[in-house]
Design goal:
Layout (H helix, E strand, L loop, with lengths): L2 H14 L10 H8 L9 E13 L4 E12 L6 E6 L3 E8 L6 E2 L2 E3 L8 E6 L6 E7 L7 E4 L11 E4 L19 E9 L5 E4 L13 E10 L5 E4 L2 E4 L4 E5 L4 H7 L3 H12 L7 E5 L8 E2 L4 E4 L12 H8 L7 E3 L5 H20 L1 H21 L23 H17 L1 H14 L3 E3 L1 H13 L8 H9 L13 H14 L15 H9 L7 H11 L7 H13 L6 H10 L3 H11 L3 H14 L5 H11 L6
Parallel strand pairs: 1-11, 16-17, 17-19, 20-21
Antiparallel strand pairs: 1-2, 2-8, 3-7, 4-5, 4-8, 6-7, 9-10, 10-14, 11-13, 12-14, 15-16, 18-19
Helix pairs in contact: 4-5, 5-6, 6-7, 6-8, 7-8, 7-13, 8-9, 9-10, 12-13, 13-15, 15-17, 16-18, 17-19
Bound molecules: ligand BES and zinc ion (ZN).
Length: about 625
Amino acid sequence: MTKYRFLAALTMLAASLPTAYAAPLDATASANVAANTYSNVQQVRTRHIALDLAVDFKKSVLSGTATLELERIDPSATQVILDTQDLDIAKTETSVDGEVWLKAPFTLGQSDEVLGAPLTITLPADATRVRVTYASKPQASGLQWLPPAQTLGKKHPFMFSQSESIHGRSWIPMQDTPFVRATYEARVRTPKGLRAVMSAEMHDKPDASGAWTFKMPQAIPSYLIALAVGDIGFQSTGPRTGVYAEPGLLKKAAYEFGETERTLQLMEQAFGPYRWGRYDILVLPPSFPFGGMENPRLTFATPTVITGDRMLVSLVSHELAHSWSGNLVTNASWNDFWLNEGFTEYLTYRLLDMQFGQARGDMERVLGLTDLKGSMSHLDKIDWSLVRSTPPKDPDAVYSSVPYERGNLFLTWLEAQFGRGAFDAFLRGWFDDHAFQSATTGEFVAYLQDKLMAQQPGKVTQAQLDAWLHQPEIPDFAVLPHSDALNKVDQERDAWLSGKTTLDALPAKQWNVHEWQQFFDNMPASATLEQVQLLDARYKLSQTHNAIIASAWFRVAIAHGDKAVLPAAQHYLGSVGRMRLISPLYRELMKTPEGKAYAEQTYAKVKSGYNVIAQQAVERILKGESGG
Ligand code: BES
Ligand code: ZN
């Protein structure tokens, strides 16, 4: 038996054990969970989901059935309430044994713009399963349907899901909360020649009936169910890693992500076994609204990180680290989101240290801190802390780098108080002791008290924990990162801007993407329009193929009133849909009346190419709402 087979067998064993009963939720935790779901999770919980779906590209619709196996927490429960958003519900049935199905009455409540509509199904006393026959709508917020023109190959359509945080309900009627975990299986029928992939065990061919079949044997939260369909090929990069992409991008993707197995091994050495079997990466078309999404066994990734120099692989480290923080131990509610992203960001930086040396990790830490300060500058104070006093109704509306970078600063500070050895052991214990469970911030604090604060008394006070978790300001005792390399970029930029050196003296030819980012991130307002234009003339920035450098450049050019870049910026905004890259440009344009008009005109032109989640984010910016 190979090491991997052995680990896989262990994992299966662990996953097949009955789920440990979660302790009853306290009032705060249940309010947090209830803020984003209609489902009656204190009465019934889904333990398995079986999907049988057909993919219709002509109608932009998924249709079929979702069968949910339920565990009764409250034996007197007479109904199950599921989350839905824009679903056409045709029929609901219940079953005792999974063989005989009885039609069950249902009601679809009033629809809320953010939460969708509750689907209430009457549950006979002995029923253990419900089956919903349904179809999604073309405007489903969790799905994007791309015409061939929006793909690399230009011949076939493409579709993908993005369920986090609460968009899964727009394509599956389910208890759409990270508090509930279920295993899943699926059968997906696609048009001939197109392949379906999911965040589950897969086969490289459809079954005899022509359907693609999937099985996820580990219990996962609803936001990790993921599907993509298109002209998708596969290339292996290691014993348990590989890339899926449109055929024209496969080779480049396989090179870019060629070190994934090594990253997995580093994570395993420090924080315990990888418990999901394979780790593959699916490269999506450029309208994918995120950098990456940690769908289990199959990370979804933006093509903008494929730059040919492996400089943006921290994205892989990040999504891969979620296999521990997020997928294995999951935030119980979206008000505990920092447990997913703060842990993951901390682990990402630790991985960068291990893979490329601490200087590289520190570069990205410093850029992360700049991001955090940028977010705080346009967020309401209530969103500066790790945990909000009132849970957000729409997690997308409060999405920002705060849970990521403040979360990382918190864990970095804890590490400094207790020492790396003790802190690493603590983290490993956190993952092992909560594996395949959802956890609250309160549980984290209790675990911290039990495993570290009690062993090393006097190192950390309650007031300090409160400052990190609930107060707005970054604590003045935070341990902040420094990067000599990035400080050097600051000096070089400022020497040029102040006339001490010439543009030709900038060592820009040797700069990597992070150094460029720093160059633009800290560009002072006092830089003149002429200086900014000189940069474009000298380095052809408006034509760069590096989407990260392009975004940073366009923001600076717009901020300094460089109108000559606007056509190129508009073209860029129409070719990339990754929110982190496009939002700063819209936000910058909104600062002047002229820019605002240009932003609106640009958005009207390119909107149809954006994912619904990105559309909503840009619309919030155009309306002048605060947010990430
Ligand atoms: N899980 C997130 C993406 C996400 C967050 C989707 C909230 C929906 C709601 C993912 O792991 C992530 O953090 N992506 C980052 C990657 C970056 C930090 C390397 C992104 O997309 O920018
Ligand atoms: Zn993440």
